[in-house]
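User: Before I run my own analysis I want an independent prediction to cross-check against. Here's the chain; please return only the structure tokens and, at the end, one sentence I can use as a sanity check.
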Amino acid sequence: MATCELPNCNKRVTTGNNVSHSKRRTKRTWKPNIQRATLEINGVFKQVYACTRCIRTHYKTALKD
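Assistant: Structure tokens:
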């Protein structure tokens, strides 16, 4: 199952219902946009599976420092 490996994120597949105009319900899933990325974590470069929001935030904070 797709899960973001970075701490404090915990994004994973969520489930719910598609609801048509006539209010009929069918099951569906929402999947996070998980990508493989090489990130510097605690001074060590690691390849992790992370959501695109975490990757973006990680690079923004790295440029800030």
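Sanity check: The CA atoms of residues 9 and 54 lie 8 Å apart.
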